[in-house]
Design goal:
By secondary structure, the chain is mainly alpha-helical. It is built from eleven helices and no strands. The relative contact order is 0.10.
Length: 207
Amino acid sequence: MTDEAIEKENAAIAKAYKELLKVSYRTLSADDKKLIRSAFDVALDGHKNQRRKSGEAYIFHPLAVARIVAQEIGLDATSIAAALLHDVVEDNKDISIEDIERLFGKTVAKIVDGLTKISSLSKEQDMHASLQAENFRKMLLTLNDDVRVIIIKIADRLQVLRNLEIYDAESQQRMISETTYLYAPLAHRLGLHTINSELLDLCLKFQ
């Protein structure tokens, strides 16, 4: 990338971060903003060498997920921070759950750990119909720990589906299958009816 392109991208990242703070349903205290800023800084550094399939900097993905969590679902600063950090441990060998706990406390670390485990589960297993019930059961068990894990994962899936055209046909069909059997029913169960409808509409669009 040219210096000009890097400068332009950095400006876009800064703008997306500022918009995240503006769109929160909740009034963010000084401590909330400090927590979110710290999470953003760790995510920005943790994903600095990553790009999405579209070619854009990876940080735009967690920023967009955090925005869904803040604006469309209305969760608190802890959830916004966890959304920013949701892929950091999985994607960066230099950052552990212990590091997240040291920097952000037990609650954020527990949510990020739950999100990391769900991601690993999805990668380990092919989403054939025979596995749906078991995956669904395992994901529901996380609800007993902290429902925010599932809500942020649903926001993550919604953000991915909104950009499904950047993935190959096989990945698209896998994600549509997962969404139809797992994430849309969970969104419905949790009362996220607008998000449930959009998830199903996006699945239909690519079938």
